[in-house]
Design goal:
By secondary structure, this protein is mainly alpha-helical. It is 20% helix and 0% strand. It has a domain of 34 residues: Erythroid Transcription Factor GATA-1, Chain A, CATH 3.30.50. Its cofactor is Zn(2+).
């Protein structure tokens, strides 16, 4: 019995969100530095956006109504 059999992983292995391969410990949750960089590039370009509703008015809470 090796000592590796008694080690519990800190995080479960999951598929890479970019390509679907198994994630690597060094680049978790991605499988490689390449996939990690692809995701970072999308963030920097603004590809990941949380859409806001157009019907919400921007109001200042200190402004009298």
């Amino acid at each position: 019995m090796s000592s590796d059999d008694n080690v519990t992983p800190l995080r479960p292995r999951r598929p890479c969100p970019e390509c679907g391969k198994q994630s690597a410990r060094e680049t978790y949750p991605f499988c490689s530095t390449r996939c990690k960089d692809v995701d970072l590039n999308r963030w920097l370009k603004g590809a990941y956006v949380i859409k806001a509703r157009d019907d919400e008015e921007e109001t200042d809470p200190d402004e009298p109504k």
